[in-house]
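pipeline: protein-struct stage 2 | run 1193 | Transport permease protein
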Amino acid sequence: MATHFLGDTAVLTGRSLRHVTRSVDTIITTAITPIALMLLFVYVFGGAIDTGTSSYLDYMLPGILLITIASGVSYTAFRLFTDLRGGIFERFQSMPIARSSVLWAHVLTSLAANMISLAVVVIVAVVMGFRSDAGVAAWLAVVGILLLFTLALTWIAVIPGLTAKTMEGASAFSYPLIFLPFISSAFVPTGTMPGPVRAFAEHQPVTSIVNTIRALFTGQPAGSEIWTALAWCAGALIVAYLWADRVYRRKLS
């Protein structure tokens, strides 16, 4: 059974990846907005923002990486919506294919596409002057957190991809996710914010994730922040997966 599932998932992931490679503009578009924001904040606003660090680019890059992921997962919802409306799911139902492999193919495609977009953003950041004191273990930890965050947001994206009534509605869910880093420690210290905004910023998931990645990039101990970040990502992943699986089963019933 497991071999059947893995084989089906591999075949369907290959199909989904081929669709992505035929429209490379989706990956480019995903990276353009974060890169534009990075250029804007560093070269226009950066000089006026006091973060207590020597490089504002180093300070805000973790937030840009999360925005890149939030932008990228909207295409997962779009691809799912397109397949659902195109009758692809019904065709797969008539074939001896593991049902869950259809969703996992889209999820794995999202992971691959987002990792490429993240690599492009990091390369541009390095060209702009980003430097890191992180060792190999710290970089692996950063990649692991970004993968877990991408996985969580992708399963969230599956839900509107299966339930949306219009193409615009399928991808519109990502707007709040893209906006969330702006009300966190991603671009300015939370201590500069007014009371209620500061309280929200300090206790929402993006802040702990950003602080953890920032500490890892600078070679500093992440402390308890890393466990908070992992708990947020794992909690969102579990809830989103169970919800998406339930919606998917209802669609097929």
